[in-house]
Amino acid sequence: MTRFSTRAVHAGRDELRELGVHAPPIDLSTTYPVTDLEAGTASFDALVGGQARAGNPIYARLHNPTVARVEDALAALEDTGACVAFGSGMAALTAVLMARRAHGAHVLVVRPLYGTSDHLLASGLCGIEAEFVEAGEIASRRRADTTLVIVETPANPTLDLVDIRAVVAAAGDVPVLVDSTFATPVLQNPAALGARYVLHSATKFLGGHGDVIAGVVCCADEDARPLRTVRAATGGLLHPLAAYLLHRGLPTLALRVERAQANAEVLAERLQAHPRVAKVFYPGLGTVRNAALHWTQMRGPGCLVAFELAQGHAAAASVMREVKLLTPAVSLGSVDTLIQHPAGLTHRVVGEADQLAHGITPGLLRMSVGIEHVDDLWADLSRALEAVPAGVQRDAAAA
């Protein structure tokens, strides 16, 4: 098998030579001619039933060739039999919950995780009872109707790591879904550690340029079929133009992650030494839960850094206001560096008590490090830190 960086460049492009093109074409058709009714009916049944392909795509909600190419590419990068792409990461998670609902209504969830994922699970909108547990409680909390175990590692926003092998062992015959958005397949392959579903918000590192919203689930084909059926029925499809942009981002994925990770390591060390910073959350510093896992189940500490300001919410707001090169915005994984306030933005929908219980304090900022020159990033960030008004008082939660 070729090495990762080579696969990232060539995956999903096998048919291009046969097509006589160099760049993947974009198929924007919403419908496809059916000249042979019997063959068309057979194709319809196959696609609605969850098959990846059929003789005729019939309708874009059922299949699109441009989307199929990027699915093939990501299945190759995660080394799974299949991948199913959706219009967003949340659509992807929703599809898994709906598909698993046929096998039970109880899900075990390890916090912290992305705020909207937390909110969806806690809301019961998908007819699922979500029980939030520590990773060490999974075996004892399993029930006869437990249909899924969900973990995010590295976790959003504190970068805590979860031992995937241990979770899979504790889950027994219950499938495990790992949200691996922060790690990307460059740094982590959960399926190789026993996870049944690997979820990515492809909006982030996989797309990599802040111009596409997408979500993918990488899994075996037998698990992908119900997801395709859900997608066909609910219309959670990925638009082919978005699929094209996502596919275009993959050849540089390894390069982007390697550069951003190198920058993150430097910034984490400098932040740790800064007097305005109370704590830095970064696996490479050993300051997150199960930090040693970044050398075993991962291949590096990653590109995200979180840090807590000693003076709390007002100081965090000041930094967000003062940065000029860094972009104060939600999301992550872009080529430029983004900084945001989890308690006030991405995790606003999580109850305050649950936020605080999992380290999401008023003074916490999460930074997605980009590929700029690290000294330029530090000049901007350190200037913003120094600009925090001297009169700002420490929050009780940061004290």
TrEMBL record:
UniProt superkingdom: Bacteria
GO MF annotation list: cystathionine gamma-lyase activity; pyridoxal phosphate binding; transaminase activity
GO BP annotations listed: cysteine biosynthetic process via cystathionine; transsulfuration
PTM sites of type N6-(pyridoxal phosphate)lysine: K204
Cofactor(s) recorded in Swiss-Prot or TrEMBL: pyridoxal 5'-phosphate
Keywords assigned by UniProt, alphabetized: Aminotransferase, Pyridoxal phosphate, Transferase
InterPro entries: Cys/Met-Metab_PyrdxlP-dep_enz, PyrdxlP-dep_Trfase, PyrdxlP-dep_Trfase_major, PyrdxlP-dep_Trfase_small
Keyword Membrane on entry: no
Record's GO cellular component terms: cytoplasm
Keyword Zinc: no
One Pfam short name: Cys_Met_Meta_PP
Family assignment from sequence similarity: Belongs to the trans-sulfuration enzymes family.
Record's protein name: Aminotransferase class I/II-fold pyridoxal phosphate-dependent enzyme
Species whose genome carries this gene: Marilutibacter spongiae
Phylogenetic placement of the source organism: Bacteria, Pseudomonadati, Pseudomonadota, Gammaproteobacteria, Lysobacterales
